[in-house]
Amino acid sequence: MITTRETERKARQDRRFISKETQTSAKYLRRIEELSGAPEGMEPFLETLGRIYVDMKGVDTGRKTIGTYCVMAPQELIYAAGAVPVKLCSGNYTAFFVGDDIAPRDACPLVKAVAGFKQTGLMPVYEDCSLMIVPVTCDCKKKIAGMLSEQCNVMTMHIPTSKGDDEIDEFVSQLYDMAARLEDVTGTRITYDSLAEAFRITGRAQYELSEFIRLKKEKPYLIRGTHAMTIMNSAAYMPAEDWAAALHKVNASLKSRAKSGQLVTNKKLPRILLTGSPIVFPNMKIPLLIEEMGGIVAGDETCMGERGLYDPPVITDDSFDGMIMALANRSLRPCPCPTFADNTQRIYRLKQLIKDNQIQGVIYHVLRGCLVYDFEYKRIEEELGQLGIPVIRLESDYNEEDVEQLRIRIEAFIELIKLRQEPGKRSTARREI
Amino acid sequence: MKKKIIITALSCAVLGALAYFAYVFPFYEFEQNDYDTSLDKILSLDYLKMLAPLFIIVGLSVVGIILIILLRKRMLKKDKTYSRFAGRARSGKTPKQKPIPYMIIRWIVMIGFGFMMIWGGLIFGLRMSSVSIPILSCPWNTEQMTESSCYYLSHLSELFDLPIKNILLFFGSTLLFIILLGRAICGFLCPMGLIQDIMDKLRRRTKTEGIPANEKLYSALTPIKWALLLIFIGLCFIGGNFCNFCPAVATSPILAGMSTSLYVSGFIMIFVLIGGFFKRRLFCNICPLGYFIGLFHKVSLFRIKKDCTACTECGACYEACPMGIKQIYTERGKANVTDANCIMCGECVKCCPEDNALSLTCAGLKLYTSSRKDIMSGYDPMKK
Q: Which residues in chain B are closer than 8 Å to A179, comparing Cβ atoms?
């Protein structure tokens, strides 16, 4: 029996939640907008994030939305079933505080925030989902899948711990299950043609992304990493066609920038690679701090960032089964996720990114309680140390209490890189300041 | 390893016995073998009669392929997840990358050389017939442009009865080609490879599921490959004739207008066609001659080079590789990833999405390098 007092209390809590949530999101959106050097054509991405988090609206497309919690659930299948995928991994501070009471203390903040959103039931992106697909990449994801299934339709996917032929075969059969489940939810049949069309939709987005990465690689100061991460983050809430079209405009403006030699800055800012636990809007404090303290995020290796859409599926067999095989292969084999027991390939990936983007320092981001990423820090620090690349580990949580501490550490790290720069370069940099 | 040797010995005995007694099992026998060839014969209606065994082989292969597809459909009917998606419309096309010069050249060379190996002598006259190339194109067909080394390699006992000049010419030209081209011979010149690649193209056109890359399949094929090499080289010494067993007999002599009787080779050709349809270049995986050339891969000039840092281990090369070479994506140290099985078909480079991660080189010269632009070219909005 719910009394009027209880409903009133709930309504008051909800109002407080909404006002706090919109305020923090709006604040971070404003900070991203205020950062200098944003390329032309950024507006659709900022608008999308604003619509979802500030206006609190859904992904309005007229199609059903399917929530995913990891890039290992292939978007192509969702598009083929006539639905739109949204990535629901959350970075929201307000929802984190709600989730803090539900999830255990040591659970990671990302999962706590998801639990918080589902508990309040106020976020349209979460509430609109007809199905949520949770690939079990860590213990927290496993338990959140259980919690979510009490309130909505959830499908879990088993992620193997290695990438042998048998594991790929098993994952293929899981993708068939996923396809069947999607058909049941959307009522649209996944055929050869619709799947091929879905490949074209996401392929178009990946084409634009590869152009974007190529442009960035050629000139490291063409765009700020925070803006690049904002673009990548908004891909979670935009249909791939719209996202590709918007990114096409950004690419065009970057091309004209590169031609006219107009860069974000003329100073030799330290180029930093951001890797580790996912960085999800509005938890953009680390990239924002790096760029506000005079560094530049020249590369990111996080799954809500460029990694999410980086690897294209390669069709080697033109049958329906061949396409599913290509998806399974793309999802597992190139993925440098620490959920796999042997993840040496991530070190090579980082080394390649360091070479491509002329990285001078690596910031290893660990969300509190994100054990799998934390485990890999030591190895990566050793390997990159041999290359002479300094690495620091930044642990953060979904609140603003640690901002000052993070600021000090990031500032010191940037100073360290500036000191390590060649003396000649350093003096020119000083003169410019 | 012990198990593999036992299987090799066993299959050696079985296949060896089959090869030895091959002449007892006629596939198609002409009353009288007629090895004469002329252009008039090819242009006359009699030519169709000569082609009869070929028609039978192709017909039986088609029947076999259809039977296998139907059988697989029946088997998958019981499987709930797979059967749900079977039998749905498939009129659309998968996104394709734009044609690549290397692949176009390869196809032109394959078709051109295949043509020359069948009718070359008839049209242009025999000019290079003393040169031996190690390919599996039947030397019964005297009209082929060059000699094929397979005859004397499988009849070593006869080789040493030849004059010394011929022996030197044989070894000289064979070794020269092996060193210059290595297994690129398989990928570019061998007519058996052309036939199998055509079967694979047919499968892709009909959008039929093939057999995906599978370690178990490849490791099961290795002992058979070893056994076949032993039979290929050793059978002549115990009085057998590998040619009655060789699938290549069933193509080029017939097409050149010879009425040659077929023995077990006809059956094996059916296996090659059906196998090549479902698994690209299945026969190349057990080909004794190809394996023999592969033994020299460390000295031949064609190489596959890899930038191990750029590789993301996506395994697309492994999925695309018709020879199932796995170390091409697992290798993390050496720059040279050429394997004894590699036939230089370039599929791995074509499928590699990373810039400069894989490249095909000849004597240090880069012929073909992987690039993301090529992979993504099918999605370019400007080119539509």
A: 85
Q: How far apart are CA B360 and CA B366, in angstroms?
A: 6
Q: Judge: A192–B207 Cβ closer than 8 Å, yes or no.
A: yes
Q: Report how far residue A352's alpha carbon sits from residue A330's, in angstroms, rounded to the nearest whole number.
A: 19
Residue count of chain A, please give it. Answer: 433
Q: Are A126 and A89 in contact, with CB atoms under 8 Å apart?
A: no
Domain check: are B264 and B334 in the same one? no
**Which residue, chain included where needed, has tokens 């694979």?**
B200
Distance from CA of B138 to the nearest CA of A (A): 31
Omega cis (within 30) before A44: no
**Is the residue at B240 inside a domain?**
yes
Each of the 433 residues of chain A gets a pLDDT tens digit; together they read: 678 888 999 899 999 999 999 999 999 999 999 988 889 899 999 999 999 999 988 887 889 999 999 899 999 999 999 999 999 988 899 999 999 989 999 999 999 999 998 888 888 889 889 999 999 999 999 999 999 999 899 999 999 999 988 999 999 999 999 999 999 999 999 999 999 999 999 999 999 999 999 999 888 889 999 999 999 999 999 999 999 999 999 999 999 998 888 888 778 889 999 999 999 988 999 999 999 998 999 999 998 888 889 999 999 888 899 999 999 999 999 999 999 999 999 999 999 999 999 999 999 999 998 999 999 999 999 999 999 999 999 999 999 899 999 999 999 999 999 998 766 554 444 444 3
Q: Which among B241, B264, B294 is the end of a domain?
A: B294
Element (H, E) at A143: helix A139-149
A–B: how many Cβ contacts below 8 A?
A: 135
Nearest Cα residue to A393 out of A367, A416, A419, A421: A367
Percent of chain B predicted with pLDDT > 90: 36
Question: Can you name the residues that pair with A129 across neighbouring β-strands?
Answer: A65
Residues B271 and B320 in one domain: no
Nearest 5°: CA angle at A137, between A136 and A143? 50
SS3 A136: strand
Q: Do B290 and B308 reside in the same domain of the chain?
A: no
The ipTM estimated for the assembled molecules is 0.89
A255 and chain B: CB distance < 8 Å anywhere?
A: no
Is B260 within the bounds of a domain?
A: yes
Distance CA A346, CA A340 (A): 11
B79 lies in a domain?
no
Same domain, B306 and B193: no
Q: Which two tokens stand for residue A67?
A: 């929530």
pLDDT digits 0-9 by tens, A118-128: 888 888 889 88
- If one counts the domains in chain B, the total is 2
Q: How far is CA A236 from the centre of its chain?
A: 8
- What domain range includes position B338? 302-376
- Do B350 and B237 belong together in one domain? no
Facing B94 at nearest CB: one of A196, A312, A348? A196
Burial class of residue B84 in the structure, from the number of CB atoms within 10 Å of its CB (0-12 exposed, 13-18 middle, 19+ buried): middle
Interior angle at CA B111, CA B210 and CA B150, nearest 5: 85
| Domain membership flag for residue B169 | yes
- B-facing residues of A in 308-337 (CB < 8 A) are 311-312, 314-323, 325-326, 329-330, 333-334, 336
Domain containing residue B360: CATH number:
3.30.70
> In this predicted structure, what is the pLDDT of residue B272?
92
The answer to whether the CB atoms of A193 and B89 lie below 8 A apart is yes
Tell me, yes or no, whether B245 and B356 share the same domain.
no
Mean pLDDT of chain B: 87
- B325: nearest Cα among B219, B226, B230: B219
CB contact at 8 A, A343 and A337 = yes
Q: How far is B326 from chain A (nearest CA, A)?
A: 10
The structure tokens listed for B361 are 């080189």
